[in-house]
């Protein structure tokens, strides 16, 4: 065997090649003798173990040789393995095939090898080409490209198989060759071109864009070079393949024509490097992250009758997120996929190949008539759709009560002495609160208040506040909780917009209500006026409301600057009040702190979860830290939770829930060891809570699964389901959905649309970006309206902030665009080292998404709803430190770059990053 290997090395330069570094660059050196040829004997526990170790060994510049042979013997096999290890700079698939053929011939035939032409012919051809023509070609080919890469979530959400990407078994499927040949002929493509079309359509499902680009592997054995098919060496190249789809025509004809137009166009330009292509096209990061290779190797594998069968193991280094190789044979196409396990899970790789199989079948069906509607090509496979449906629908359960206050009334009857509401040391039992509400309800009834009316409750935190809200419900009206601390103009707008029928307030705020001259009646109440049971208690028969009537109205911030009124039905309120009360700590015997602002929907969550399940609601006062010493559960924003300090200071706490904004990993890891830590999600338009997740230390941040009777979908811009892991808009259906915005028909029609998956249902488009993970949980990734375009790149600001929160010490993060020129990243606490934070973000995001300026804050500014106040961040003066230029050469270079990039030359310093400007 050693003699045969020696003959190969004598015949072929590539087996005697190494590379050396000189001041001008890297040079190839071909040794004339065989002194550097390595043929080593090795013992290994298994051949797989040897291949793994051999791959890790690799090659380095300066090695004596860039190929080596090893003879490997394993204890469990009598087989002697010959392992050829070569640097990829020396070979391609054709080269390996020809080497193995020659090796076989030398082992079985004494005749000398037929000399092969030198690789120098290819080098001479490339050097003779006009670089300017190639630059012009690739500039035109990549013009206007917006790169969209596969992003299916971090590997921590899935389970990666052990072993390196090079030695792990690839994922595989088989496609029927006869069907593909038929379809290819019908649409005017070769089989290889047909697979490119199928792969482009598959990627379109995962990128959700009609401009698709991936890497295609070219053998370049069609170059106009004499006897090129017999040359040993790395002729292979990977170049972009761009396929565009015209969705407006709902036809595949345009995409097929674009593939046909590329025939032969790459000859003469395929040798260009990706580095040059990116420079010519202005693409900063990767042009593509998937590669498709259709293997058409020379027909040299038939070794004749009586020959032995050889199993060939070929470890393959994976350089992209996903690399797909197609091997044709007589009956089918074998599709093999290797993936980078740090960027893609095994299950995702399998699903993508299954989606490719499904897409191939879809194209086959359409190939009979290309004028048929091709919108079906967006549809995911039945297998994946089943996976999605299993996670998208919360358990379907019958609601236990017709109206939201019925559970409270049942508690008041069965446990009248249980404490219900507490404020500043004064407590009302369930029975007392019910009696007070009955007294006020009787008064409202006499004023004509009933179903279809809205009752504005203008107060501050006090015991009268829940009393008034209950009274409104008892007469069938809808309650409108309004914080008396709101600006008068805001109160006036909301009361007028909602067409409030009556206002309930306290003596303390009588003057405020009178000054607004509302033109509607108002009622002033006090503890004394409702202290005793009414002599005319309200009767249940006087409340004619049904579960489809309004329970309450809350106002949420609007993009136009004016608040939007959101009515919530009794059915929605009952659903969120009844289910998951144990998980969130709303159980009898628990004292629950009411944290949220009383004029927002968070107050409704606290109030009705408590009163429906027998807990005691403690209204927050100025002594909140003292009161928390005896509290068992509460819900607040992550920003507010951070301000409370360390969980060990509150020994009575059992459950802490966060909602309203993204929960930082460091905050969850701080609190989860001490309490049951719940991450909640739900927009005002869907009754406060639609998803819940109990997070343990070490868990990733997700919003979990949908609540009972809630439907949760991840959809694209045309309301089509996207594959598992793909980012889309989170849309919600089910009993939770509001009837729509008050007096805003255009916005209602835009956000509240027919549920495409439930006949007669209504679906709310949240505007939140999210994805479904492999474990069935949902993950949020920011807002659709947080997307900006900076220097030609689309950037999700919330995605950047999410990457910042991967730093173990960052508690809160926010990102804004400053002066339309650069990103500014704000974070707390200010003690976090900027250099380390920058490294963390750079490890998760492409360079153009890394903020140019970093600002550490002691406290993140909050708005009145407890969320990060980005207007306050925008108003902050931020100085960018620019190290002064020192030499004339630096000043000339800065001037040139300022002109090229269109920036102020004063913004360029000695250490300014190209990407930051």
Automatic annotation (TrEMBL):
GO cellular component terms, A-Z: cytoplasm
An example Gene Ontology molecular-function term: phosphopantetheine binding
Superkingdom field: Eukaryota
Keywords, ordered alphabetically: Phosphopantetheine, Phosphoprotein
Gene3D superfamilies xref list: 3.30.300.30, ACP-like, Chloramphenicol acetyltransferase-like domain, N-terminal domain of ligase-like, Nonribosomal peptide synthetase, condensation domain
KW Phosphoprotein (keyword) present: yes
Pfam families documented for this protein: AMP-binding, AMP-binding_C, Condensation
UniProt-listed InterPro entries: AA_adenyl_dom (IPR010071), ACP-like_sf (IPR036736), AMP-bd_C (IPR025110), AMP-bd_C_sf (IPR045851), AMP-binding_CS (IPR020845), AMP-dep_synth/lig_dom (IPR000873), ANL_N_sf (IPR042099), CAT-like_dom_sf (IPR023213)
Keyword Phosphoprotein carried by entry: yes
GO BP annotations, alphabetical order: amino acid activation for nonribosomal peptide biosynthetic process; secondary metabolite biosynthetic process
Ranges where the Carrier domain occurs: 884-917
Name of this chain's protein: Carrier domain-containing protein
Taxonomic lineage from the root: Eukaryota, Sar, Stramenopiles, Oomycota, Saprolegniomycetes
């Amino acid at each position: 065997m050693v003699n045969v290997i020696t003959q190969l090395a004598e015949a072929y330069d590539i087996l005697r090649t190494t590379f050396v570094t000189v001041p001008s660059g890297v040079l190839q050196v071909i040794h004339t003798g065989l002194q550097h040829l390595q043929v080593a004997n090795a013992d290994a526990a298994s051949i797989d173990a040897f291949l793994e170790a051999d791959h890790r060994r690799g090659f380095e510049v300066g090695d004596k040789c860039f190929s080596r042979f090893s003879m490997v013997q394993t204890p469990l096999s009598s087989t002697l393995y010959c392992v050829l290890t070569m640097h990829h700079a020396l070979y391609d698939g054709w080269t390996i095939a020809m080497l193995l053929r020659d090796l076989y011939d030398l082992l079985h035939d004494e005749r000398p090898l037929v000399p092969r032409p030198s690789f120098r012919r290819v080098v001479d051809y490339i050097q003779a080409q006009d670089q300017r023509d190639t630059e012009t070609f690739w500039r035109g080919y990549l013009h206007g490209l917006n790169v969209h890469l596969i992003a299916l979530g971090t590997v921590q959400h899935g389970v990666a198989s052990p072993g390196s990407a090079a030695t792990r078994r690839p994922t595989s499927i088989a496609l029927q060759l006869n069907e593909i040949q038929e379809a290819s002929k019908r649409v005017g493509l070769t089989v290889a071109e047909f697979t490119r079309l199928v792969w482009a359509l598959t990627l379109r499902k995962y990128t959700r864009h009609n401009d698709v680009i991936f890497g295609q592997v070219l053998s370049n054995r069609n170059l106009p070079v004499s006897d090129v098919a017999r040359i040993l060496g790395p002729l292979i190249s990977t170049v972009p393949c761009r396929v565009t789809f015209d969705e407006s025509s709902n036809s595949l004809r345009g995409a097929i024509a674009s593939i046909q137009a590329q025939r032969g166009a790459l000859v003469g330009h395929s040798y260009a490097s990706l580095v040059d292509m990116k420079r010519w096209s202005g693409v900063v990061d990767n042009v593509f992250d998937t590669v498709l290779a259709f293997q058409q190797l020379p027909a040299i594998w038939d070794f004749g009758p009586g020959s032995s069968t050889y199993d060939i193991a070929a470890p393959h280094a994976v350089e992209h997120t996903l690399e797909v190789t197609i091997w044709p044979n007589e009956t089918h196409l074998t599709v093999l996929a290797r993936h980078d396990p740090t960027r893609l899970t095994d299950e995702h790789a399998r699903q993508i190949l299954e989606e490719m199989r499904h897409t191939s079948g879809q194209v086959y069906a359409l190939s009979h008539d290309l004028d048929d509607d091709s919108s079906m090509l967006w549809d995911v496979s039945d297998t994946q759709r089943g996976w999605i449906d299993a996670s998208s629908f919360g358990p379907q359960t019958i609601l236990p009560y017709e109206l939201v206050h019925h559970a409270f009334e049942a508690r008041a009857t069965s446990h009248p002495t249980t404490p219900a509401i507490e404020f500043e040391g004064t407590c009302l039992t369930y029975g007392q609160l019910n009696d007070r509400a009955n007294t006020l309800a009787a008064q409202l009834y006499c004023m004509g208040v009933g179903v279809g009316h809205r009752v504005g409750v203008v107060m501050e935190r006090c015991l009268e506040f829940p009393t008034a809200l209950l009274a409104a419900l008892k007469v069938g009206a809808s309650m409108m909780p309004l914080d008396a601390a709101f600006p008068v103009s805001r109160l006036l707008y909301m009361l007028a917009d909602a067409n409030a029928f009556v206002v309930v307030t306290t003596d303390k705020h009588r003057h405020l209500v009178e000054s607004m001259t509302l033109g509607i009646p108002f009622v002033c109440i006090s503890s004394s006026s409702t202290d005793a049971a009414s002599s005319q208690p309200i009767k249940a028969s006087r409340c004619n409301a049904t579960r489809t009537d309004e329970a309450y109205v809350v106002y949420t911030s609007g993009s136009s600057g004016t608040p939007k009124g959101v009515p919530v039905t009794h059915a929605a309120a009952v659903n969120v009040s009844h289910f998951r009360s144990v998980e969130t700590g709303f159980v009898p015997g628990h004292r629950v702190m009411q944290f949220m602002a009383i004029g927002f929907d968070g107050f409704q969550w606290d109030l009705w979860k408590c009163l429906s399940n027998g807990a005691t609601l403690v209204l927050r006062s100025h002594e909140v830290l003292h009161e928390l010493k005896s509290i068992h559960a509460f819900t607040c924003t992550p920003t507010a939770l951070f301000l409370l300090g360390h969980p060990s200071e509150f020994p009575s706490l059992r459950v802490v829930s966060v909602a309203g904004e993204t929960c930082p990993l460091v905050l969850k890891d701080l609190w989860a060891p001490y309490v049951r830590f719940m991450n909640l999600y739900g927009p005002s338009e869907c009754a406060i809570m639609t998803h819940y997740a109990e997070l343990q230390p070490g868990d990733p941040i997700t919003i979990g699964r949908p609540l009972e009777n809630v439907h949760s979908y991840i959809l694209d811009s045309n309301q089509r389901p996207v594959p598992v892991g793909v980012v889309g808009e989170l849309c919600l259906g089910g009993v939770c959905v509001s009837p729509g915005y008050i007096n805003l028909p255009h916005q209602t029609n835009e956000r509240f649309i027919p549920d495409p998956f439930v006949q007669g249902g209504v679906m709310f488009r949240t505007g939140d970006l999210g994805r479904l993970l492999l474990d069935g949980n949902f993950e949020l990734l920011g807002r659709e309206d947080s997307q900006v375009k900076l220097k030609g790149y689309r950037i999700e600001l919330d995605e950047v902030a999410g990457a910042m929160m991967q730093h173990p010490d960052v508690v809160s993060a926010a990102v804004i665009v400053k002066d339309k020129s650069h990103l500014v990243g704000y974070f707390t606490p200010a003690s976090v080292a900027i250099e380390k934070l920058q490294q963390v973000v750079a490890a998760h995001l492409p360079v153009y998404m890394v903020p140019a300026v970093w600002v550490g804050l002691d406290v993140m500014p909050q708005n009145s709803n407890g969320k990060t106040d980005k207007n306050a961040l925008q108003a902050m003066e931020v100085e960018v430190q620019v190290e002064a230029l020192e030499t004339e050469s630096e000043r000339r270079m800065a001037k040139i770059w300022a002109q090229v990039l269109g920036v102020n030359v004063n913004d360029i310093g000695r250490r300014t990053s190209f990407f930051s400007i």
